[in-house]
Amino acid sequence: MESQSTVKGQRYPLSDMQRVHFLMCNLLPHQPVGNLPILFRLHDSVDMHRLARAIEQAVKAHDAFATTIDAGWMGWAGRTGRILAALTDTTRQRVAATFDYQLTVEAVSDLEMQRNMDGALVVPFKTTNSPLFRIRLFQTPTARYLFADVHHAICDGASMPVVIEDIERAYHGQPIESEDYNITDAVLRVRTLQSGEAGARANQWYREKLKGMPHGILPRPDHPGGAGIIRQVVCPLGLSLDHLQQLASNLGGTVNVVTTAAFAILLSQYSGSRQIPLLLAYSARDDQHIARTVGMISRGIVLNTTVENNTLTKDFVTTIKFYMLRGMRNCYYKTSQLMKTDMKWHTAMPFLYHGETTMTPVIGGAPAQRIMLPIRIKGGMPMAVHCMIIDGEAHLMVFYRDDLYSEQYVRQMVADYAKLLY
What we know:
This protein is an alpha+beta fold and 422 residues long. 35% of the residues lie in helices and 23% in strands.
């Protein structure tokens, strides 16, 4: 496939996934809704100034970092205008024609760094006409840190590993492979697919599959609700990747399929509903031209299935596998068309499988230690679950509203989920 050859400095539409993230940030203003923060404690041997130069090279290699969004002529109306712009597809993005980026090393005290780790680093982005990423290097008397935070409108879960790999290559003086497609090329590719046969087929498939989809199917709360904030907890499942791969092989699926099937059963048990909608994520990097593109490339798959009483994971894998494969094939639906129907797909509970990752990536020639940062959001989605394989062991990261759920409840739910995968 040939490149779409978009021109830097010119304005281009957003993808519908970008619009969703832009919209959510303006519906919940002054909150870090679209942030994807990550913090690493670096090895003492890392040359911080050399690392800063490597990060500069990696950032300049990916046009997403030079991308800003504006709300068009509606932007003058402030937050209301930005919301209307997202809903009416008048938001636009541009990659800067020239982009100069420099990074310095910040000397801070250990106390100040502790405040950073307690939440001071994660602040909302200004979503229009401003950079949508932050990278900072800190050096304290006792430690060294790399902090990065990128807005979801320009970055998905598959993008950051590409960036970290490029940083490491540049640190060792190796060339960084350029993107075949940049962020706006990739968006135009999606919009072209949506306006053609693939989009028409996907819209029709979802109209059929989402008929009668129930709204708001969630675990029954153990708290009465009120003015809560979103908290997160990362829970090990006590299951290795080897175990899950063997289980998936025995059941004729993948680890993604098996963990999704088990979660659909769990949600049925905890919600009391036989009909289960789930919002899944698909990387959509099925073309080699976008394998190294940093951007919001991933697509959502809305699963709407029925869980019979006493269903076991082994009995449900084939159903989920078929649905997920069809969902991937039909991922180029238009969000705006689904929103015009009564199919409130956006109320489906998110279950996002991230695959293999590590808490100790190599940065600056030595293993770095990832530090989990708190993300405090008032209100918002009651619960979202991420399944990750961290250093060969399965974990669930659960985001939950503390006015609806207690941490004890969440941990019990995770324990019950693990039983479905034995």
